[in-house]
Amino acid sequence: MTSIILGQGRDGSSIELDLPELLATRLLVQGNSGSGKSHLLRRLLEQTANVVQQVMIDPEGDFVTLAEHYGHLVIDVEDQSEASLRAAGERVRAHRASVVLNLEHVEAEMQLRAAGAFLNGMFEAPRAHWYPVLVVVDEAQLFAPVAGGDTTDEARRLSLGAMTNLMCRGRKRGLAGVIATQRLAKLAKNVAAEASNFLMGRTFLDIDMARAADLLGMERRTAESFRDLARGQFMALGPALSRRPKLVAIGSVETASHATGPILVPLEPVPAEELRDIILEPIAELSPRPRRENRPPPPDLLAQLDAYGTNRDAAEISTATATTTIEADPDTLWSLVSEVASGDDADYKPLATLYQDFQLRARILGLPRTILDLPSFQRILINSRVGLDRSRAETEEWQQAEHVAHTLPEDVRGVFLLLARHAWDALPCPDDDALARAYGTHSLGRARRQLNYLEEREVIVLQQTSSQRRVAIVGIGWSTT
């Protein structure tokens, strides 16, 4: 199957989209709200669901219903760290999983960070996993804006860099970008310019009509025709669609979004006095705000992706399970993990990447790659980073600190154990650079905020003055100098 039917032309003939050509040349969709962009993207995803791997960046949660019909894995980014999303992007490519990245429940700042981390993880996947992927980004102007908005510069740079990589450098890595936007004028030009296929829907602003006409090679005096397009009608142009601008009415779809438009409902007449009693009814005084409870750690997203891939590599997993009975010297394993932890930029690499590095080193020594599971590897990795050897890490005192760390989210365990180790040895509190490395970030501000978070979780007591900082570990009695 090399083409799909996208819809019908003016004369009722079928308008086809050449899928291999689309994978090589990318697609840009533009249209105002209500023009039918989401319907078009849904038609494209449904028609190619069983042909090519798909990744949907979904800021509004409109496409999660694809999972019910086509088996897509829905990834809710709420409570997930950037590191886990970056690693998830790598594993999505390794397992060839079709996923919907649902950004519905997070604010704009986290949407940019989550999308950027996930796309960068896909982009940095090893060459062996460069299978073709259709990467669809709805509301692309949010992730590749022309100018700054209410989000931080760091988040915008992360997201814009990922979108630029997707559209400019993704082709050789098998990444085929399909981006949809309400406003061409708000979309970064270096992202939009890399698309060779265009589907332009209804739009009313002069600047957007002019840009759409330029992209389609139409005369500017004909640009006003974009105002006359009906919902679901688009002007198509590109090597995967048509060599000349052609009108296409998008075909029907099988799935629908959970969100529906507003429906007019007749008002029921209610006397004003009754409304007054209902609306102005006195309320009880609010009770004191309950003390914040410890939240359980977020679900293991990487474990979900591993489970998703079991059907494809069951034989490999069966073989790996059989080899786990082979034992290795614990000191050798500790030494291997310490070498991984001391590598260049190891503090900032995803856990999955470091684990692959360890597995490679183990195979070179003749050990099975499953000789150490991921949780055990992560424990030794963190202990090596904080400067402990195997003998000290297995003492009862340190195991108390590890027990507390396991009640925290994975991304802050390294920060807590670094503080615990300095407090155990009565050393000065780690500086901001050390905290940032333990958290896996280059931002010193984000690293400092983790101290306040740990104090809110009531696992440390923080004493900070203008010249120094002390930390005490709750329940254990250790304190930094």
In the CATH hierarchy, what is the class of the largest domain?
Alpha Beta
Q: What is the count of DSSP helices, taking H or I runs of 4+ residues?
A: 20
Q: Calculate Rg over CA atoms.
A: 27 Å
Categorize the overall geometry.
globular
Unreliably modeled segments: 319-326
CATH architecture of the largest domain: 3-Layer(aba) Sandwich
According to DSSP, the number of beta strands is 13
In percent terms, what proportion of residues is strand?
A: 5-15%
Describe the oligomeric state of these chains in a short phrase: single chain
Number of domains: 3
Strand order across the biggest sheet?
2-1-11-10-9-3-8-7-4-6-5
Q: How would a crystallographer describe the biggest sheet?
A: 11 strands, mixed
Structural class: alpha/beta
Question: How many angstroms separate the termini?
Answer: 68 Å
What is the averaged pLDDT score? 83
